[in-house]
Specification:
This protein is mainly β. It is built from two helices and nine strands; from the N terminus they run E-E-E-H-E-E-E-E-H-E-E. The protein has one domain: Beta Barrel (Barwin-like endoglucanases), CATH 2.40.40. Its EC number is 4.1.1.11.
Amino acid sequence: MQRTFLSAKLHRVTTTAVELDYEGSCEIDGVLLDAVGLGAFEQIQIYNINNGNRFTTYTIRGKDNSGVISINGAAAHKVNVGDVLIIAAYGIYTEKELENYVPRLCYVNDQNVLTKISVNISL
């Protein structure tokens, strides 16, 4: 059997830009992409803490240490600059793979600078 589990999470990033007239995607600071283990063009789920919107898109690598979190294309209707987001990715794992499963959870400050990497939920 295969099961779907959280593989990566960027917790409480702040939206720095919304670009309606842009090919759809989410541009993310390259340092954050690397820290959380996401690749360019990887599918992600975005959860907007400010308004409850949830949507699927894919990543685009932004400039390292830029702090950029830009929501582009049609998804730009679901987010405002300054909105706080959770960006998550999921993986499909076999029972054997789950024996060594750990998610990669990344936390940032209000400037989208990485402050902590964990495998456990911070409460």
